[in-house]
Write a structure and sequence with these properties.
heterodimer; A: 216 residues; mainly alpha; MetI-like fold; 8 helices; B: 267 residues; alpha/beta; six-stranded mixed β-sheet; 10 strands; binds adenosine-5'-diphosphate; binds magnesium ion
């Protein structure tokens, strides 16, 4: 128990790194995933194909493999990425965007085609139709699965521990080595810090969900 | 259909704009064909709608009326032929197409009001985002239109809180807010309870009298007789017959039109 308190500064550092990875990758994934979803429902066949390809690759590749690609393989092609947070954020974003895309797309598909047709009929372009009519309605169905995606992302940041990023899980592992008799306490401390991120995320999700609901 | 509610009305021998005072061609379909896969839904359609003309399209279910209507603002692409509006061929995609659509009002069978916006916002969205109007002016104009279709007192409600007839009148106001050159109506009263049909038809008759160019898919003979200059009868993707309303309803020439009319009259 004392060892946990003694280790708090290290755990805190690990926590802020995890939070950084989760928030930055989360925001980027929301943006990239929404763009991919727009690709996938675009009237242009070429965009649909590009979107579908990226999503299928992201969704069907183990996250560790995505990390290996961005941490080890991509730098050999000449794009030198520094080891550490940047390739981790890229890997997490590529992987998570695919899931964001699918959540957003199913939300878009849940909005009746008549809504988009009415929007186009008054002269709104594709982007306006999506941003003013379809997405605001899609949000309602999209928020719950999206929060699940972001909670999964928070947990997935632990994969970065295997790639020289000292986030929560890596911190926990090294602390467990330093205090072999208090391993359970250490892991408990690590778990606690993950919950500090995921539980509020779930609570906020519930609040947003209630806000975006409207009567049809 | 709900034709029984209007077919018994007295025949009004009044036409909005005398036929010989109609303007030049506004909507022109030239050799239009449309396939859905193997299905030949529109077959060699030649049709010209003149400025100020009210054209009623009638025909059995599946004859291609909706597809025809939707092709005119390119919600449905065509396989061959050409459609032009006010002398301009329909653009393929992008900004030019959006601009053209803003000049063509469309009213759907299922209303399609934006479910997340109030009645007022439904009407102002186009003027604000497509025409770039100022908010106050757009609101003022929208309120005038809502007043004209008789739902001004519902302006702050959500569409789901309105009756079908009210929703459809809002949809008409939404289309009118763009100052369209032509209005397309695809069975605007078919989804309505009988007691709400006339409140929508009255608005449409009013529009016709003001000289709006209209293409109306409907089986409402009362409306056709009151407001239409011409009736086009479609069957299996073709225009089989066209005539003035009185002539068409009292003395159809084709067997298919006779057969169709006998069916909707006995309902
Ligand atoms: N999106 C579509 N895909 C395939 N077939 C369609 C589609 N829309 C309509 N059709 C078919 O085209 C024909 C004409 O349909 P439609 O224009 O809706 O007829 P109407 O409005 O006269 O009832 C029908 O046989 C219908 O089943
Ligand atoms: Mg139809």
């Amino acid at each position: 128990m004392d060892s946990v308190i003694e280790s708090l500064p290290k755990l805190w550092d690990g926590f802020t790194t995890t939070l950084f990875l989760a928030v930055v990758s989360g925001v980027l994934s929301l943006v990239v995933g929404t763009v991919l979803a727009a690709f996938r429902v675009s009237p242009l066949r070429s965009l649909r194909i590009i979107g579908a390809t990226i999503v299928e690759i992201g969704r069907n590749t183990p996250l560790t493999l995505v990390f290996v690609f961005f941490v080890f393989i991509l730098p050999t092609t000449g794009y030198i990425l520094p080891l550490g947070r940047v390739p981790a954020v890229i890997a997490l974003t590529v992987y998570t965007s695919a899931f964001v895309c699918e959540a957003v797309r199913s939300g878009i598909n849940s909005v009746g085609v008549g809504q988009a047709e009415a929007a186009r009929a008054i002269g709104l372009g594709t982007v306006q139709t999506l941003s003013l009519v379809v997405i605001p309605q899609a949000l309602r169905t999209v928020v719950p699965p999206l929060i699940n995606v972001l909670i999964a992302l928070t947990k997935n940041t632990s994969v970065a521990a295997g790639f020289a990023v000292v986030e929560l899980t890596a911190t926990g592992r090294s602390l467990a080595r330093d205090f072999p008799t208090d391993v359970l306490w250490m892991l408990g401390g690590v778990a606690f810090f993950y919950l500090v991120i995921t539980i509020p995320a779930g609570t906020i999700a519930g609040a947003i969900e209630r806000r975006v609901v409207f009567s049809r | 259909m709900n034709d029984a509610s209007t077919t018994d009305e007295p025949i009004v021998d009044h036409e909005p704009t005398p036929r010989d005072q109609l303007g030049g061609p506004l909507v022109v379909l030239d050799g239009v064909n449309k396939y859905f896969g193997e299905l030949h839904v529109l077959q060699d359609i030649d049709l010209t709608v003149h400025r100020g003309e009210v054209l009623v399209v009638i025909g059995p279910s599946g004859s291609g009326k909706s597809t025809l209507c939707r092709a005119i603002n390119r919600l449905e692409t065509i396989s061959s032929g050409q459609i032009s509006i006010d002398g301009v061929p329909l653009p393929e995609e992008g900004k030019a197409l959006a601009r053209l659509r803003s000049d063509v009002g469309m009213v759907f069978q299922s209303f399609n009001l934006f479910a997340h916006k109030t009645v007022l916002e439904n009407v102002t969205l186009g003027p604000l985002k497509v025409r770039g109007m100022k908010s106050a002016a757009a609101k003022q104009e929208a309120m005038d239109l809502l007043d004209r279709v008789g739902v001004a007192n519902q302006a702050q409600k959500m569409p789901a809180q309105l009756s079908g007839g009210q929703q459809q009148r809002v949809a008409i106001a939404r289309a009118l807010a763009m100052n369209p050159k032509v209005m397309l109506f695809d069975e605007p009263t078919s989804a309505l309870d009988p007691e709400m049909i006339n409140e929508v038809l009255d608005v449409m008759v009013g529009l016709a009298k003001e000289g709006m160019t209209m293409v109306v898919v409907t089986h409402e003979m009362g409306f056709a007789r009151k407001a239409a200059h011409r009736v086009v009868f479609m069957d299996a993707g073709r225009i089989v017959e066209e005539a003035e309303p009185e002539v068409f309803f009292t003395a159809p020439t084709s067997d298919r039109a006779k057969d169709f009319l006998s069916k909707i009259l006995t309902h």
